[in-house]
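Morning. Coffee machine broken again, so started the prediction first thing and wrote up yesterday's gels while waiting. Chain of 260 residues, entered below exactly as on the submission form.
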Amino acid sequence: MKKFFLSFMLCSLFVTSFAQTPITIYTRWGQSVQGHINTEMTSSEINSLNAQYTSLYPQATLLGNSSSTYNCHSYAWNMWDQGGPTCWINASISASNDNIKKYWTNDYYALTNNSNAPLIFYPSGDHSAVKSSVSGKYESKWGSAPLMRHAPDYGPYTNMANRQYYAVIFVTGFITGEDMPKLNVPYGYSSPSPGVSPVYYVWRVDSPHDDPSYYDLISSSSYATITYYKQTIFEVYCDVYNSNNNQHVGSFWIEPIAGY
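Came back before lunch.
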């Protein structure tokens, strides 16, 4: 076991001996993440690490060769999720996890209690993984060591039982406003916030036969004023999109019954 921990420490430090070129990559919502491009190890070094880790962890499945060019964080959040460039991403730059947490802080992903979420972060082990298509398994890059398929708590990292799950943000709910409006009277409606920014709001009203003479809609951001002119049931929607990439992040609804 002592030999293993020493070898893993050396593996983690090994990449620093290679030439590194800084690179800036971006989250889905445009936040900048620092990374670097490393030169690759030799074939003999790659083969040696492959053999070492498949021997140490026989219950894991080797999916890709050892490599100094990318690590777990880059594989999960950058390469697997976004098809981004092959590079190395450190979780922390000047504070704990300040680099990696951009992917789930006011961005495309959010913390969830759902253990079936596609992306996983191990806060005690400085490690990231993705949910495998093989039931009950994760896939992750082990530092400079191989890309492996493994059980959630099986691998060379500290306290792998401590896991955080991340899923795509999409919020649904109800618009606030009058649901029994009178005719020819303007009413105000408010959409909830999806909890992220920057966003923009798109309001629409469905009326019978999509006849615009049935209502008047004036909207501004998360607030809208609607005047109803016909006695009928309306459906009011507010869809919320991220301003950076038009990602649909929320959808809210109310069904006013007008003029009854």
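The chain has three helices and 18 strands. Going to sketch it on the whiteboard this afternoon.
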